[in-house]
Amino acid sequence: MKNFKLFVLAGVAAISLQAGEIKVIANPSVGAAAISADDLKRVFLGTRSSLADGSHVEPVLAKTGPAHEAFLKEYLGKTDGALTTYYRSLVFTGKGAMPKTLSSDEEIVSYVAKTRGAIGYVGAKTAATGVKELGVK
Fold it and tell me: Could you tell me which residues come within 8 angstroms of residue 99 by beta carbon, excluding any fewer than 6 positions away?
């Protein structure tokens, strides 16, 4: 039983560590190599649809997971429930639409790779072929 408790504690610690490790990715059509944390927040809250270099961007969200929770906490300052409520209010008032939401990091990478202007986030250790990583400043 003691070994089981240690195993569970080790697993929780590993999940906590992974939650803070995310990377922001974009379709290669996005000209910027970096994005400010403020602009990233504006893009994902639907108040900005282009970057300083003029690149049009479309946010892509994860449905759940450690990268999603870390992204919400670090860059948006919202819980998943608060973000859903926020988007619903935009839709209800006609000021915006629900963003694309995908189930896994692999789906996000695939979608971002093939969708002009797409920008998303994944776990830092996720293979990200066909996309570019954006620095967040």
Answer: 44, 46, 58, 59, 60, 61, 87
> Hey, what are 46's tokens?
């639907």
What range does the domain containing 22 cover?
Answer: 2-136
Q: Are 113 and 130 in contact (CB under 8 A)?
A: yes
| HSE (side-chain half, CA atoms, 13 Å) at 23 | 17
H-state helical runs in the chain: 2-19, 37-44, 66-71, 80-93, 105-114
pTM attached to this predicted model: 0.83
The structure tokens 């990715």 sit at 25
Phi first, then psi, for residue 44 (nearest 5°) are -80, -15
CATH code of residue 16:
3.40.190.10
What pLDDT, in 10s, does the model give residues 59-93? Answer: 999 999 999 999 999 999 999 999 999 999 999 99
- Return d(Cα 59, Cα 120) in angstroms, integer: 6
